[in-house]
């Protein structure tokens, strides 16, 4: 399990085409990828399981806790990205609720674009 950040402060100013915004790049892959949005309500949980492929969880809103094989939970919040390798056991839970994007792909390498937390 590795922790990254994709928050605004880690982004890059984009000005091409008369644009004015900040982009935090996440991934670039030629492999197929599955992308979904997860909504954990109050006391929600993504149960303890093995990652079928490398998996990146991007916390968009709220806060919660994650763990891997060790039973120690780590607090996560908006702007955090958590990366699990294929076959790594993991769990995510939230007391107050959180919204996250999950990206699953055989060729994920978040270190290419994101800073370690």
TrEMBL record:
It comes from Lysinibacillus xylanilyticus. This is Cupin domain-containing protein.
């Amino acid at each position: 399990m590795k922790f990254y950040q994709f928050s605004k402060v880690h982004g890059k100013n984009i000005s091409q085409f008369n644009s004015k915004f900040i982009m935090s790049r996440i991934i670039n892959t030629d492999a197929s990828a599955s992308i979904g949005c997860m909504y954990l309500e109050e006391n929600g949980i993504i149960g303890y399981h093995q990652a079928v492929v490398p998996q990146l969880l991007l916390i968009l809103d709220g806060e919660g806790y994650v763990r891997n094989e060790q039973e120690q939970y780590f607090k996560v919040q908006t702007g955090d990205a958590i990366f699990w390798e294929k076959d790594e056991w993991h769990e995510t839970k939230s007391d107050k609720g959180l919204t996250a994007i999950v990206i699953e792909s055989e060729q994920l390498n978040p270190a290419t674009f994101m800073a370690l937390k």
